Amino acid sequence: RKEFVDLYVNYVCNESIQKPFEDFKKGFLRGCPAVKWKMFLPAELQIVLQGHKKYDWSLLQENVKYSEYKKLDKTIRNFWTVFYKLPEEKKKMFFAFLTGSDRIPGYGLEYFTFTIAEHKAENPDEFYPFASTCYRTLVLPR
């Protein structure tokens, strides 16, 4: 019985999935060559692939750039006041709105920058804020 169970478990866990796994591995390694991954420790590789999970929102504010706005403009002060009052989950949702992901890139938040730009409109009350995830730009009407 033990031999049968051992052979059955080996078949289910190894042999039966070998061909589909090899196909997956071949496609995966075409886009993500494993040779370059050997320089990472497992924890570092996880950060590269998934991003950081620790958020320091004050670093986000420090690294922001302004286009057409100044740091002390009323719109900017109001934005940061509201932002810091948000619960943690809503802040992550904002980060996802801005970047397309709620995770901080592998290089860390201290090097992450984004831009807050003014939406040029005759009547800014008719426009909602929007984000360009490619350029990490938040466009705010005054």
From TrEMBL:
Catalytic activity: S-ubiquitinyl-[E2 ubiquitin-conjugating enzyme]-L-cysteine + [acceptor protein]-L-lysine = [E2 ubiquitin-conjugating enzyme]-L-cysteine + N(6)-ubiquitinyl-[acceptor protein]-L-lysine
Enzyme active site: 134 (glycyl thioester intermediate)
UniProt GO molecular function: ubiquitin protein ligase activity
Protein name, entry field: HECT-type E3 ubiquitin transferase
Cell inner membrane recorded as keyword: no
InterPro entries xrefs: E3A/B/C-like (IPR044611), HECT_dom (IPR000569), Hect_E3_ubiquitin_ligase (IPR035983)
UniProt keyword terms in alphabetical order: Transferase, Ubl conjugation pathway
One GO BP: protein polyubiquitination
Top EC group: transferase
Residue span, HECT domain: 1-142
EC number: 2.3.2.26
